[in-house]
Every structure is written in structure tokens, then in C-alpha cells.
């Protein structure tokens, strides 16, 4: 779709932007495939479920309200609720009443869930490291950090908050 | 999971890698949400379907074999076959026999599909540009291109080819 005749305020991508966009889609798609496939093979669960265990493990009391959990893993409450039900069946998470809120619920990591996370974490970190980080120089690592922060900041400025679903102006 | 005591050859992420990984997951997740939601709202289809139309439009004869199509959009043949069936129902794609291969099939963009793509392309490009590219400096644009190329090259070196599903060594 690129065209050297584009005006600066028109919506088209430049040739360079188009190339970067396609490369980014391919890189992030392949990276997700690697991570997803490894977690399914070694952990028998989607990467999104692993992230739920990890985020709970880092929270006070190893627990989060369902809406907070949906926020930190960037998912809808209905999808997180489904995932938590599956993780409950495995004995890795349980739902408990939220203190001081009769209608609220917390998802809480069980001791078995914490142990499962510790079993899976080194292998997962190894895949992330070898796929994404080993090839990058220290300068590239700093650059990608800077780029992610810049894009996230711009999204936040335009109203993309941590709520899900995001507002229309994102 | 970070720890300054990690050995260089252990599988753990450094604190910096962990921060970058989380930022990358959040950035790419939010970006996907923006693109997906915009395409659903304005085009009534998933971004993956739009990509199929775009990739066909850039191919000779505006057509691709089903396995080539699965490859360029990084999806499985069964998912692409389902998507092509839905796009056929909308009249935007048709299946035609592959010349010289009695069992092969091509997915071919119809004239209506091409027109639909042209209708959607400027809005889609505008969302990609405003979300990802407007915030980035020319230097950051060059850096992200370089980073994507480095990660993709390393994946290719380790056996992640364009086949789907990728080999176990990815």
C-alpha cells in the first residue's frame, strides 16, 4: 500500500512503515507460536493460563480480584472467569470471597498452583530468553524497551487505559 | 523471576529482560486489541480475514494456493480454510481449481473482495499508523525494523521455517 506520493497527513503507511508492520506482525506471531506451543507441550495449558498463575504469585496474598486479574493479563472478565474455572479443576487456583465485599470474589493461587508455576517457570523463561533475548544486543534490548514504552505511553495518552474493553479512542 | 545472582548460562531472565518481556506482551497485546476491534467495527471481520484479502491482492492473479495462504498469514490450513469459507459466503473470495493440479485449490480474490479491501485499507492503515508509527521517531522506526529482523533471522537459523506448524526446535 506504500506510495512515495503520499501526503504527510494522509492515512497510508509509507513503504518503510509497511515493511516494519509486516515484520512486526510476523515476529510477534512467530514468537507467540513458540511460547504457546512450548507451554502447551510442557505445561499442558495455554500461555494465558500460565500468566494468570504468574500474576497471582506476584500479588499480595497470592490473590487478585477477578477484574484486577482480567486487567493484568489483558483479557475480558468472561475469558478470565473461564480460565480460572479450568485452573480450579486442576487444583491450582481457588475462588474465595473478597474480604469486606459480599459480592466480590478473589482468585487465589493454591500451594499446588505455586509449585506448578515453579516447575514451569525455568523452562518458560528459557524459551523466552532463547527466542527473544539471546539474539539481541544490549543496545537492541534497550531500544525495544524504549519502543514498547513509547507506544504504550502514546496509547495511554489517547485514552487506552488498563480497563477492558478499551475505549473507542485507543 | 529476575535475580542478580543468575549464572549467564541459566534459563532465567534478568530483571531487565523480564521488564522488557512484560512490556512487549502488553504493547503487542494492546496493539492487537486496537487493530482487531477497529477491523471488527469498521469491516465486520477479524484482522486475520483482512490480512487474507490483502495478501491475495498482492499475489499474481490475486490468488494463492491454500497452503501458501496459510503460510503468509501464519495460520493453520484448517483455520485458513474456515476463514476462506466465510469470505466466500460474503462473496469476497472464491475457490478455483489450481491449474495443472487436479487435487489443488486456489483461493482467489473476487472483484467485490478487492473493492472491499480498497474501502477498508485507508482506515486500517490510519489505525496502524496512529497507534504504532506516529509515536515513533525515525530512529525508533529503524530500530524496531532491525530488532524484528534480528529475532526473525535467529528463529529461521534455529529451524523456524515458514511451514505451519513450526518444528519443535523453534
Would you write up a description of this structure?
Two copies of one chain form a homodimer. The first copy, chain A, is 61% helix and 8% strand. Chain A contains six helices and three strands. A three-stranded antiparallel sheet of chain A has the order 1-3-2. In chain A, helix 1 runs antiparallel to helix 5 (111-133) and helix 3 packs across helix 4 (77-89). The longest helix of chain A is centred in the first third of the chain and has 29 residues, at 15-43. Chain A is globular. The mean pLDDT of chain A is 88. Chains A and B meet through helix 1, helix 5 and helix 6 of A and helix 1, helix 5 and helix 6 of B.
Descriptive key words:
homodimer; 170 residues; mainly alpha; three-stranded antiparallel beta sheet; 6 helices; 3 strands; 61% helix; 8% strand; globular
In a few lines, what is going on in this structure?
Chain A is mainly alpha-helical. Chain A has 6 helices and 3 strands, in the order H-H-E-H-H-E-E-H-H.
